[in-house]
Amino acid sequence: MIEWIGLVALLLSLLVLRQNLLVVLGSALVFTSLVFGEGRLTDIVADVWEAANKEVLLSIPLYLLAGNVMARGIMAARLIRLMRALAGPVPGGLAIATVLSCALFAAVSGSGAVTMLAIGAMMYPALLAAGYPRHFSLGALCAAGTLGIIIPPSIPLILFGVMTQTSIADLFLAGIGPGLLLTALMASYALIANRRLRGDSWRLGEILGALRAGAWALMMPVIILGGIYSGYFTATESAAVAVVYAMFVEMVVYRELDFAGLYVVVTHTTQLLGSLFPVLMFALSLNIFLTYQQVPDLAVGWLMERVSNPVTFLVSVNILLLLVGAVMDIGSAILILAPILTPLAIAQGIDPVHFGIVMVVNLEIGYLTPPVGMNLIIATTAFREHFWTVCRAVVPFVLLMLAALALVTFWPDLTLFLIR
Questions:
Q1: Domain-embedded: residue 25
Q2: Is residue 75 part of a domain?
Q3: What confidence tens digit (pLDDT) does each residue in 271-292 have?
Q4: Is residue 6 in a domain?
C-alpha cells in the first residue's frame, strides 16, 4: 500500500510542477520497475524495445505525413470547391460546405488538427466575407475540425488499437457511423442557424468542373479504406499507400508541391513525431510492466465488486473521460487510460471496439473544452482570436457532440453494425 501511495505522490508532484508527459511516464516507469519489479533498469530498455517492435506503429507517421502533404498542396482546395458547388445554394450552404469539407478531408488525413488548419485557412475568411457570424464561423471550424479524430483513418483509433490489442480495421469501420452522425448534426445546425443566408443557384457546369478537378482527391479514401476492407493491404500498408498517392497527386498530377516544399513537410512531420514517439514508447513499456504485474486484473476485480451493471460503468467512464479530455490531450489520455479502462469494459460485457469509439468520442469533445482544448488553442493562433472568444463560439457544437456521445454510448449498433 505504501508503494502505491508513493507512486501516486510522485505522479501528482510531477503534474503540479507542470512536467511534460515524457518525464511523468518515464518517472512512473522507473519507479514501478524499482519498487514493484526486480529492480533492473535494463528491463525497461527491453520493454521499450518490445513496445517499439510493432509494425502497426509505422502507420502513425505515414498518415501524419500524408495529411501534411495534402494540407500544403492543393487537394484541400479541390475538395472545398466541390463541397461549395454541391452545398452552396442551400440555406447556410457555405457553412454546410465547411462541415462537409472537414469531414471529407478527415477521411484522407487522419488528423483533427491538420483538418482544421487546412480547411480553416481557406474557409474562415470566406465565411466572414459571405456574412456568416464570426462566432458561428469559429465554432463551426473548431468543431468540424475534430471530425478527423473519429472518421477513419484516425490516428487516435490507431493508438487505441495499439494500446489495447484491438483490431484497427474494426475500429475504422466502427468510426464510420459516429462520424456520419456528428457530420449530419453539425451540418443540420449550420443550416438552421444560417437559414437566411443563401448562395447562388446550382450550376451543373460548376459541379461537373469541381468533380473533375477533385476526382484525384476523392479517390484517396476509396483507395485507402477499400484496400483495407477488401484485404489487399493492412492498415499499416494503407498508410504507406496514402503517402505515395498524396505525393503523386500533389507533385505529378496537380504539380502544386515541389521537392523544396516536400522537404519542409517531412521536416515538420518529423518534429511532431519526435515529441510523440518517445512518449508512446514509454507508455507501451509501462503497459507491458503493469500487465505483467496483473494490475488490470486487480482493477477488474475491484470494479466488479462495486459496479453492478454496464450502464453505471459507462456513465462513470463518460464523466471521467470528459474531465480528463479537458486537461489532457487525446494521445496522452489514450496511452494512459485505454489499457486500464478497456479490461474493465470487457468485464462488464462491453465490446472493446464499441468502448474504443466511446472513449475517442469523449476525448474528441476535449478538443473543444478549456483549459487545454487543442482546437481552441490552434484556432486562437490561426484565426487571431481571443481564447475565450473561441471557447464561447464552440458551446452550441459541444452540446451537439454531447448528444451524439449519448447515442454512441447507449446505442452500440451505431458503431458495430458494419462489423457484425
A1: no
A2: yes
A3: 766 766 676 666 666 666 666 6
A4: no
